[in-house]
Amino acid sequence: MKGEKRIALTGFMGVGKSSVARHLSSILRCERVDLDAFIERTERRVIPEILTRDGEPAYRDLETRNLEIVLSTTNVRILSLGGGTWTLERNRELINRYGLVTVWLESTFEHCWANISKSRKERPLAKNKEAARALFDQRQAIYCLADWHFIIRPEFTSYEIARQIADEIFF
Length: 171
Ligand code: S3P
Description:
Elements: E1 7-10, H1 17-28, E2 32-34, H2 35-43, H3 47-54, H4 56-73, E3 78-80, H5 89-97, E4 101-106, H6 109-118, H7 129-143, E5 148-151, H8 158-170
Parallel strand pairs: 1-3, 1-4, 2-3, 4-5
The protein binds shikimate-3-phosphate.
């Protein structure tokens, strides 16, 4: 394995960050943290409730605070971010400061939207297709700042994507 690399997975909602992270952690036999789940555990509230009741700016503050907690208190090697985490400069600085390699799971809007529509996960920022598409278009240039880009084709399983990332980045 190449050193003790730590990676952060980014990409739009519905691209499969959490599933790929789950497979990666079992392939590499190392721990992973899902930032959304971590926030929900520490805040004892679900993200849709935080977003709708407190608003997005308050949610983003919590997200940054929890990101910093994960980075400063754990040595976790696989971190799956929320779809908006990487879009904030202060979060990118933190991730870079802690030396994580960032991986963008890149896919088409239609693929992400198909997954969002069939998922049971509530996503207040992607309530309808138009809102989701606007966010998707707006974020592409920022996701692009990640160190690695992996094009996700719908026919690939999450396991196959994780295997490819493990082979290219870790072995
Ligand atoms: C968000 C994505 C969600 C979650 C929150 C905000 C976003 O995570 O963090 O609803 O801004 O794209 P997923 O990308 O895991 O759905």
